[in-house]
Amino acid sequence: MTDRDEPPRARALTGGAYAVGAYLLWGFLPLYFVLLEPTGPWEVVAWRILLSLVFYVILIPLVGGWLRLRTILGNRRLVAWTAVAGVLIYLNWQVFVLATLTGHVIEMSLGYFINPIVTVLLGVLVLREHLRPLQWVAIGLAVLATIVIVVGYGAFPWLALCVAFSFGFYGLVKKHIGPSVDVMSGLTLESLWLAPAAIVQLVVVAVTTGLTMGNAGPGHAALLALAGVVTAAPLMLFAAGARRVRLIVLGIAQFITPSMQLVIGVWVLDEPMPPERWAGFAIVWSALTVFTLDSVVAARRARRRESAGIDSAGIDPEEVPLKRARGLMDEPDPRSVRSDQSPTRDTQEHR
User: Fold this and answer.
1) What angle do CA 193, 117, 121 make, to 5 degrees?
2) 3-state class (DSSP) for residue 252
């Protein structure tokens, strides 16, 4: 029995477990990168790119993905967009690892807390989407939180905003190419385009500070060699979960990752958390509460409208997920999806 043949309830529970597993693994990433010391951020990201590429190349024939990959390579527009996505995720990775290894895990957690709001804001600025009043309130609170942190803490959260906006723009690119590029092919091509840059980084590190791979003990070498798996495993779990659960479930579950990062930064790595910073985070959490409640209400209204249409057509609502999965019913027209339906699934394929 395939996942599409699962009963709706079992399918949702399985998908939720996959999604939570992905977010938990992403939440532990700061600890993994800290364990890689004395490896610096430039070498870490370079190995992460190259070892991820190796992992994907091994995995693609096992899932029968070569044909899809060749089809995408024959489309110059899609190839160009995967290159853009690669540049954006490289920026996100490099800033994240650099911040983690220089004592800024808390600031990274702030970036991922505000990422959903940044994504919606980019939808307005780039895609000309329309927001509901409560979504504007959430954006206003996020801006206020930034001001409080700047004025009270005396530092502008550049790293957090860089992470949030690079990941937000990455999501826009993934949304643009949509179903034309499957998850495995997209990740493979993004890693492939970044491979030359990764090799250059390793060369520069080798001739300056020296490479640590193989020079810091077998345990360290084994940990560093796992960079590809550590990158790919949560992505695969997320992709499996995203096929099974509603966007609103992913939208709520995504806060597991920055919450874990905050706990790790404050109580494990002992980073400073003065009252001004707590105040800024409290405002961000208020914004996220407004944002999440608004999304839940919007999702319920959409389901009621959908159920009303299904009832009038004489279709059993319990059969809708299976019928859609088997291609017996059309999905809602994507052109009708506005910014009130969170693009979480498109924006979190790469972490």
Assistant:
1) 80
2) helix
